[in-house]
Specification:
The chain has about 190 residues and is α+β, with helices and mostly antiparallel strands. The chain has a single domain, classed as Roll (Nuclear Transport Factor 2, Chain: A). The chain is about 20% helix and about 35% strand. The protein has a six-stranded mixed sheet with strand order 2-1-6-5-4-3. Belongs to the bacterial ring-hydroxylating dioxygenase beta subunit family. This is 3-phenylpropionate/cinnamic acid dioxygenase subunit beta.
């Protein structure tokens, strides 16, 4: 894929310019800080109203069956959320009724390998070439109580929409590298 627009002026599928790439990275660093600081209500403000937040499960498969290693829509998922359902989870954290997060976990979100392109509407129905397709890698360290430690590694594919309030996450697909979670619970946001 090229970094320039085609003769018709479309940016579909092209790499974002340097300023846009920097803006997206700074957006992700701010998001990580909000999550690590436990400022979940502020994190919610970074999510679009029509958010699709999905983390499918995965299984080990032979090389010839790799297409089946990630669960499809409608199959098992760690998260299959909307902004409304995430807001419900956060209200539950704040109520003191979420035993898995009382006392709360301490997390550190490391975001790297950020690639930014303009959405190709032919590949992403319902989006325009003004929206951004972003792929990133993450490492999330979680510590809770005296001895509970978890490390989650994986990748995210997002679609970001530019609004009058700044960038907003409208779609996030999270894929963990591990298929068996060693954590006692998964109350961490990615």
């Amino acid at each position: 894929m090229s970094t320039t627009t085609d003769p018709t002026g479309s940016r579909a599928g092209t790499r974002a310019d340097r300023d846009t790439h920097f803006e997206v990275e700074q957006f992700y660093f701010e998001e990580a800080a909000l999550l690590d600081d436990g400022r979940y209500a502020d994190w919610l403000d970074l999510l679009a109203e029509d958010l699709d937040y999905w983390m499918p499960t995965r299984t080990n498969r032979l090389r010839r069956q790799q297409a089946l290693s990630v669960a499809a829509r409608g199959e098992a998922a760690f998260y299959d959320e909307t902004k409304e359902s995430l807001a419900w989870r956060i209200r539950r954290f704040d109520s003191g009724m979420a035993w898995a997060e009382d006392p709360p976990s301490r997390t550190r979100h490391l975001i790297t390998n950020v690639m930014v392109r303009h959405v190709d509407p032919a590949e992403q129905e319902g989006f325009t070439d003004g929206d951004l397709w972003v792929r990133s890698a993450f490492l999330v360290y979680r510590n809770r109580l005296e001895r509970e430690e978890n490390v989650f590694a994986g990748g995210r594919t997002d679609i970001l929409r530019r609004t009058t309030d700044g960038l907003r996450i409208t779609r996030r697909t999270i894929l963990l590298d591990q298929n068996i979670l060693q954590a006692k619970n998964i109350s961490t946001f990615f």
